Amino acid sequence: VLGNHDYLDDAETLRAMLAAFGVRILKNERVFLGKGNEQVAIVGVDDLWFGDVDLELARMGISEEMPQILLTHNPDLVFSLKPPPVAAILAAHTHGGQIRLPFIGAVPEIPTSLGRRYARGRFDWNGVPLLITSGLGVTGPRARLLAPPEVMIIDVYF
């Protein structure tokens, strides 16, 4: 999924570049992974700030029994989630706090309604695992302090 800074730069060029390498961007879409009857739906939605999030469209064709993993750039999407529940939510947007001070956390406040506590890591959101990665990018000052960049690798087992 794309994020707010992708839209601020040149989202269409980025889409084309990634497609040339075989990377599929999910924009209110889903893909199915698995074998036979053991499948999971990977649901990707557009950016909450600069895109057009349509979770209903993204979930189209998914049975209520099928596990879903939701990909969203902005973790604030959790406030608008409706049933059926998802198995996990993967998000970014926070840059891990980018500039963090010991005992204080992110300075300045991270750009979400979730607050500093949710800068990065694994959380429980109403019984659903919420994983927020600090990602690779930066914004504002081109630096990070105590918020190392990361690529999150998640294994899904059937």
Molecular structure report:
- This protein is α/β, with parallel strands linked by helices and 158 residues long.
- The chain has one domain.
- Helices cover 12% and strands 23% of the residues.
- It contains 3 helices and 8 strands.
- It has a 6-stranded mixed β-sheet with strand order 1-2-3-4-8-7. The protein has a two-stranded antiparallel sheet with strand order 5-6.
- The longest helix is centred in the first third of the chain and has 10 residues.
- The two termini are 24 Å apart.
- The mean pLDDT is 90.
Give the class from helix and strand content and strand pairing.
alpha/beta
Helix segment count? 3
Low-confidence stretches: none
In which range does the helix fraction lie?
10-25%
From the alpha-carbon coordinates, what is the Rg to the nearest angstrom? 16 Å
Which helices and strands appear, and what pairs or packs with what?
Layout: H1 4-8, H2 11-20, E1 29-35, E2 38-44, H3 55-58, E3 68-71, E4 88-91, E5 100-101, E6 105-106, E7 121-125, E8 128-132
Parallel strand pairs: 2-3, 3-4, 4-8
Antiparallel strand pairs: 1-2, 5-6, 7-8
Q: What characteristics describe this protein?
A:
two-stranded antiparallel sheet, globular, 158 residues
Quick summary:
This protein has three helices and eight strands.
